[in-house]
Design a protein that fits this description.
- The protein is α/β, with parallel strands linked by helices.
- The protein has 3 domains: about 5-195, Glutaredoxin (3-Layer(aba) Sandwich), CATH 3.40.30.80; about 205-315 and about 440-509, 3-Layer(bba) Sandwich (FAD/NAD(P)-binding domain); about 335-440, FAD/NAD(P)-binding domain (3-Layer(bba) Sandwich), CATH 3.50.50.60.
- Helix content is about 30%, strand content about 25%.
- It has helices spanning about 5-15, 30-45, 85-95, 105-110, 130-145, 160-165, 185-195, 220-230, 260-275, 340, 355-365, 385-395, 490-509; strands at about 20-25, 50-55, 65-70, 75-80, 120-125, 150-155, 170-175, 180, 210-215, 235-240, 250, 260, 280, 285-290, 295-300, 305-310, 315-320, 335, 350-355, 370-375, 400, 405-410, 415-420, 430, 435-440, 440-445, 475.
- Strand 7 (about 170-175) and strand 8 (about 180) form a beta hairpin.
- It starts with a helix and ends with a helix.
- Keywords: Disulfide bond, FAD, Flavoprotein, NAD, NADP, Oxidoreductase, Redox-active center, Ubiquinone.
- Its EC number is 7.1.1.2.
- One of its GO terms (biological process) is response to reactive oxygen species.
Length: about 500
């Protein structure tokens, strides 16, 4: 039995929701992965009379496709979709059977309106928490539009194919044989990349808001909900709903929830926001802010949104090292997420830049799968908690180098080493390796504001105890501000504070 008893019990409940028959076409060999895949398929067939199976020969072996009876739906799994991808398999079975995907009708119409042939391939790792979003989005597109197909490829099951294409980050998506993109992508983001996104005309006739929230992370969601609960006209414009927590795996300090994962929390935030009369504008990047009769926020697509008050909650992003080779080899050996991309470096030598908690935690995680991990710390001592340092120092395949100033990440078509300078002696050293994980903190997403608002030298927006900035009517919350600590629960609280501050401003002005 390939499925554990508790998972199988949950699966049985989901399979009862199937609305029609599906046909699984299986292409299997005599290898271990094929045998495990067949065991999974056999269990699925035994659990539902709506699932049929037939053997065939697909492009890759082992693999199987999930189809409506009498047609090729275009949804294929190459490898065994367990781990984080098990949900992708369950959703594919339900949606192919006829159960409608939980997607806005506007997005469904966009997908159905796409003309042409789009053959997607996504290379994933079963331990990657970012990959399911991409897999599930591409599966939905394949199910809704006969001109679109998608194959999920487990990199561990098809190592030679992954190496031949120099894939060093997951998820990596190919479209019609050419690299399309990498990293987490929502359905709306994929549509935008293939030229099916809202333009400025869709925002032209929007009435001014009472409160416009810029940013869709924990602070932005909290601010929007608090504002909407006051019964005032509220909008939220976000480049990516969920923000940075979409890239966070384990969350164990969100009070009242012992453990959750970033994508799950982001989905809950979005679901909560949509329970209120909030105008949600996703996949839109703010370009500038100016106070006139109203406060005007210009978007990258040229649209201008007007509001009586604005709450900025644009969050932060990974800080770059800023050395030669970092940008050139991004996703070609330079990575930022050890949970997602770590398995691609199994048995290899990697480095982690950064000796704080995130860097040392990354090194500990990587040490379990790579041949050797080298931690480079700029300061004379690691900054991570002592318990983490003790764990790192106990590992036989981990080395810590302090006073190390990274000078260059080297390579040809992919990373082959890192050069650093010993800050004590001035000597230059080179370490041969195949991967570099950057873990040196965050930088606020406030560049687009220019000199409009008062910011710290680090770019953080300066706010008072009400969340107000130096411009009347403009408030800010979360990791983009000068708050002392950057935590999810603190961001949510500051979002609520900013919304209440904005409401107080509105009733007094």
């Amino acid at each position: 039995m390939i499925l554990e008893a508790d998972i199988k019990a949950q699966l049985a409940q989901y399979l009862e929701l199937m609305e029609g028959e599906v046909l699984i076409k299986v292409s299997a060999g005599n290898d271990d992965v094929s045998r495990d895949m067949m065991a999974l398929v056999d269990e699925l067939v035994s659990m539902s009379a709506n699932i049929k199976v037939e053997k065939t020969e697909l492009q890759r072996t082992p693999s199987f496709s999930v189809n409506r009876i009498g047609e090729d739906t275009g949804v294929t799994f190459a490898g065994i979709p367990l781990g984080h991808e098990f949900t992708s398999l369950v959703l594919a079975l339900l949606q192919v059977s006829g159960r409608a995907p939980k997607v806005d009708q506007k997005v469904i119409d966009q997908v159905k309106g796409i003309k042409g042939e789009y053959h997607f391939e996504s290379y994933i790792s079963l331990s990657c928490h970012n990959c399911p979003d991409v897999v599930q989005a591409l599966n939905v597109m394949s199910i809704l539009n006969p001109g679109i197909s998608h194959t999920m490829i487990d990199g561990a099951a098809f190592k030679e194919e992954v190496e031949s294409k120099d894939i060093m980050a997951v998820p990596t998506v190919f479209l019609n044989g050419e690299e399309f993109g990498s990293g987490r992508m929502s359905l709306e983001e994929i549509l935008a990349k293939i030229g099916s996104a809202p333009d400025a005309s869709e925002f032209a006739n929007k009435d001014p808001y009472d409160v416009l929230v810029v940013g869709g992370g924990p602070a932005g969601a909290s601010a929007a909900i608090y504002a909407a609960r006051k019964g005032i006209r509220t909008g939220i414009v976000a480049e990516r709903f969920g923000g940075q927590i979409m890239d966070t795996l384990g969350i164990e300090n969100f009070i009242s929830v012992s453990r959750t994962e970033g994508p799950k929390l982001a989905a809950s935030l979005e679901e909560h926001v949509k329970e209120y009369d909030i105008d949600v504008m996703n996949l839109q990047r703010a370009k500038s802010l100016e106070k006139k009769d109203f406060i005007e926020v210009e978007l990258e697509n040229g649209a201008v949104l007007k509001s009586k008050s604005v709450i900025l909650s644009t969050g932060a992003r990974w800080r770059n090292v800023g050395v030669p080779g970092e940008a050139e080899f991004k996703n070609k050996g330079v990575a930022y997420c050890p949970h997602c991309d770590g398995p691609l470096f199994t048995g290899k030598h990697v480095a982690v830049i950064g000796g704080g908690n995130s860097g040392v935690e990354a090194a500990i995680d990587l040490a379990g799968i790579v041949k050797h991990v080298t931690v480079l710390e700029f300061a004379s001592e690691l900054k991570a908690d002592s318990v983490l340092q003790d764990r790192l120092n106990s590992l036989p395949n981990a080395t810590v180098i302090k006073n190390a100033q990274t000078k260059e990440i080297t390579g040809t078509d992919k990373v082959n080493g890192i050069t650093y300078v010993d800050r004590e002696t001035g000597e230059e050293h080179h370490v041969e390796l195949q991967g570099v994980f950057v873990q040196i903190g965050l930088v606020p997403n406030t560049d687009w504001l220019g000199e409009t608002l008062e910011r710290t030298r680090m770019g953080e927006i300066v706010v008072d105890k009400h969340g107000a900035t130096n411009i009347p009517g403009v408030f800010a919350a979360g990791d983009c501000t000068d708050s002392a600590y950057k935590q999810i629960i603190i961001s949510m609280g500051s979002g609520a504070t900013a919304a209440l501050g904005a409401f107080d401003y509105l009733i007094r002005n």
